[in-house]
User: Fold this.
Amino acid sequence: MAARSVLKSVCTSLAGLKLGASGSNVSALQRINVPQLSALTIQSRGIRQVVEKQEGKTTTVEGRSVEVPAGPQPPNPTAKCPIYRWNLQHKYNYTDVLLLSQFIRSDGGMLPRKITGLCAEEHRKIAVCVQMAHRAGLLPDHRPKLPEGHVPKKAKPQLNRVNQAIWLHLLECHHSVHPGSQ
Amino acid sequence: MSSFTRSAQQWATFARSWFVIDARMQPPGKIATMCSVRLQGKHKPIYHALSDCGDHVVVINTKHIAFSGNKWEQKVYSSHTGYPGGFKQVTAAQLHQKDPKAIVKLAVYGMLPKNLHRRTMMQRLHIFADDELPEDIRANLTEELAQPRKIPRKLSEYTQEEIDAFPRLWTPYKNYRFENPQQMFRQQYHL
Assistant:
């Protein structure tokens, strides 16, 4: 399971007095060549590439939607929930920030379940893990936006927090039917 | 070691070593157990309580210590000045603000045996709030101990290649509105 090996290799720590080379071996997944875009529109109707054509006296400026290259195929494509599609049911933790960051907004909140397609339990588990990751300070760029001109009254002391790894499968209530098996 | 001369073997067995521990993002209790074991000399096969075989331990970066749970707000350090009405209680956060070395010092003090040797062992413990050491201590250091807890990586510490190599688990439907283009770009491109 390529995703699992990526997750494992990605969870190496940076312990030690001198932070030497992290030695993370991210492997096993193919690199996809992303075509360079000439213009990236801010509007959200998909990415379009601006194409200019000159035919005599008429210039046609067209926005063509870029064809998205196929990414790596999930091992279980028939499942409904993305976690079950990639067989990551009991394999993630609050430290797997690369996984969790795909389901959060830029201010740190969770994306709605109807958009991401997660099933209810996995959505809850990911929400719990995201909360733990925020508390441990692993998502420093996903902070809520403060209104402009807001000056904090007193600089809050920065206290580091440690989370104890929880076994998520012990938390979830017992259920016999898995969405992936349908 | 059998290849050592007698004097070298004697030196290796009985010399007092200097250990250094980095307490960055570590729970102070775990740091304290490691310190107390080495201050008493219990990591040596020649240990005896009366034979003064403890080593020196230097703890650095104690101001970056990390408690689990809500201990910063809930753990209380109490003391009494001896005068009536002199019972003082401070939370771990307040104590850390006042003196960043105190939490580790009190933790180690509580873990050492409660006898007269404790004070000498505490004199052999050197705590520093950041990683600046005086030259004479730095010259004495012999071994660095591994940190008891693996520090998880922050999202900002991952390189762009690692982020790109991780597969996108879900793609949004065609006209979904993201707040910023970078998020949309990453999701669209199945990277």
About this structure: The longest strand of chain A covers residues 48-55. Chain A touches chain B through 61 residues (CB under 8 Å). The CA atoms of residues 9 and 25 of chain A lie 6 Å apart.
